[in-house]
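lol ok so funny story. i was supposed to be doing the assay writeup but got distracted and ended up predicting the structure for this chain instead. priorities right. anyway since i did it might as well share w the group, maybe its usefull for someone
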Amino acid sequence: MQSGVVNGTEITESLMLVGGLIVEIPILMVVLSRFLPFKLNKWMNISSAVLMGLVTLQSGAYDLDDIFFKVIVLGALIVIIWQSWRWNEIKVGNGA
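and the output, tada:
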């Protein structure tokens, strides 16, 4: 990593910026889920989970631990998509 190359990919400032933006998507969705109207919230959750799934699938799997974590991430994203798809406005509330 200190050499600036990881698995044959040169680590540049642009790559680090793109990586930082991608990491912020799930964090942003936690915040937005508290403020967005129901329908927009539902579709933003689905679309961000699909986007993160595509990012996860396109990044290379170099060894067993990479594959293990990809399976965990993809499984969690599938659950997010499934739960968001089935989400009804009645289920959303303040917990009362």
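The chain has three helices and two strands. The chain has one domain: 5-91.
back to the writeup now i swear
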